[in-house]
Specification:
Keywords: Metal-binding, NADP, Oxidoreductase, Zinc. It is built from ten helices and 16 strands. With 336 residues, it is α/β, with parallel strands linked by helices.
């Protein structure tokens, strides 16, 4: 089968950073589905792993943690899917990724693809939907019905995770949603997705909230550059509030939150698959719920750019754009 992989971690500018290869097809056993991949999207995690994680000597590392495809074979323990089903998923960090024609994935972290989206549109959503859902409802425990004027601040709202976070909040809760963006096109993007207010994250967020006379956010979700905003977040968040993040600041001094008794939550959507937690099937369940929201017309795809085919050249382009920090929504690749 065709795949795009690497043997040595490093910069995207390296000549061997991503290479098109041919390898043997895997075999489905146990709870695994063998999926013929139709479309994928690229996330910051792809670039982080490529730069920092090398496979064993002589082996290939295949990236990719967002895919849509068709079930081609099933393991003997599979009960949720059958051959021919169209599925979507983010996969597991400790297994080979979706930048390949065929991929093995545990059925318990797989959902049925929305019927109303094509493969390209659907590929933009799985990883970000899981991350946003788990942060909002598992980590921050945002209520579906909160007291009036309860607010949430989403920092980096125009990115892939932020884009789906705003939609889930507007469709499933009554919170006032404040998003941040710095460019005209990204401000317009999150306004279209439903943000009630948009702040410029290049300026003081606490000061902007005061100027708008907004209620202090009970919830703050930081998707990027948390270290740059931490003092600001500590100032603006409501006492006994809840703060969550998904990025990787070199230092995180949470003593800033002590006087307000703020709880701090880290979301890593690979935790359930990596540790085979007892509730691993929750990822399948939430993907099916998001799929229904899409088919009901309540959630829309966040794809903003499409590249074809899935090969090393186009994946290098996608990695370069992700690393530039200027991405709006999601970059999707389709077809081998």
């Amino acid at each position: 089968m065709k795949a795009v992989a690497y043997q040595h971690a490093g910069a995207i500018a390296s000549t061997d950073s991503l290479v098109s290869i041919e390898i043997e097809s895997p075999v489905a056993r146990g709870h695994d589905l063998l999926v013929r991949v139709q479309a994928i999207s690229v996330n910051p995690v792809d670039t982080k792993i490529r730069k920092n994680v090398s496979p064993e000597s002589g082996q290939w590392k295949i990236l990719g943690w967002d895919a849509v495809g068709i079930v081609e074979a099933v393991g003997e323990k599979v009960s949720l899917f059958k051959i021919g089903d169209e599925v979507w998923y983010a996969g597991a960090l400790n297994r080979q990724g979706s930048n390949s024609e065929l991929q093995l994935v545990d059925e318990r972290i797989v959902g049925h693809k929305p019927k109303s989206l094509n493969m390209i549109e659907a590929a933009a959503l799985p990883l970000t939907a899981i991350t946003a859902w788990e942060m909002l409802f598992d980590r921050l425990q945002v209520p579906h019905t909160a007291p009036d004027n309860t607010t949430i601040l989403v920092i980096g709202a125009a990115g892939g995770v932020g884009s789906i976070t705003i939609q889930l909040l507007k469709q499933l809760t009554n919170l006032t949603v404040i998003g941040t963006a710095s460019r005209t096109e990204t401000r317009s993007w999150i306004e279209q997705l439903g943000a009630d207010y948009v702040l410029d994250h290049r300026q003081s967020l606490a000061e902007q909230i005061k100027q708008l006379n907004l209620t202090a956010p009970k919830y703050v979700f930081s998707t990027t550059q948390t270290d740059q905003h931490l003092a600001d977040i500590a100032e603006l968040i409501a006492p006994q509030g809840h703060f969550g993040l998904i990025d990787d600041p070199e230092q995180l001094d949470i003593k800033l939150f002590k006087s307000k008794s703020v709880s701090v939550h880290w979301e890593f959507m690979f935790t359930r698959s990596m540790y085979q937690t007892e509730d691993i099937i929750k990822q399948s369940e939430l993907l099916n719920q998001v799929s229904q929201l899409v088919d009901d017309g309540r959630i829309k795809t966040t794809v903003s750019q499409v590249l074809s085919p899935i090969n090393a050249e186009n994946l290098i382009t996608a990695h370069q754009q992700i690393e530039s920090g200027s991405t709006k929504g999601k970059i999707v690749l389709h077809g081998f």
